[in-house]
Amino acid sequence: MCKGVQRKVLSLILFFLLINISFLYAFDNDDFQFWYTQNEEFRISEDFKLNLEEELRFGDNTNHLYYHHHDLGFLFNLKNQNLGFGYRHIYEEKRNKFKIENEPYIIYGYKFKRAIFDFGHRLRFEYRHFDYQADSWRLRSKLDIILPIKFYSFKFQTYLAEEIFLNFYNRVFSQNRLFFGISKDLSANLKLDLYYLLQHTKSSLAKWNRINALGAKIKLVF
User: Is the pLDDT score of 28 beyond 70?
Assistant: First the structure.
């Protein structure tokens, strides 16, 4: 991509980000949050890796920790596809008390390229075990559109993503997430990902609750 085209693409992306953020602040009167994720990836072999993840979510305008999870996952690469499984242990505050969710899962993903864009699609099938309510199954489908950018000697990636959540017990879509983010390899072993998230969640009263969040993810590769 020539430098002139690179500058135009970068300008459009920055313009979209500013418009998107101003729209969210202008029209969304719900909670603003901060999500922080730390991921450690251990490469067992060229096609097999282990992932450890911890995530914290701060709500009530980022003043209150209400969510915390630990995740252990294994992923097998098959050319442009991958298959994996794992377990997530979740602490989430409900009615002023932290409650536990145990969540084993399997995932399947694939990647492809069209023109200057990279695409990724991931399916995640979860079994959600609770001590305080009935267990359930859930399917998550996430589509990523990634644009690699080189601005002079500075290389990074921008992406748009959407993830939908389908509950099997009542066969309804319960959640939708929209992401806009920028990621950068700071070194061969360290990656930084910054994103903005708009999330809609369907409540038990059939109403859609909305949050918007600023997220940061640090990934270490060993």
Answer: no
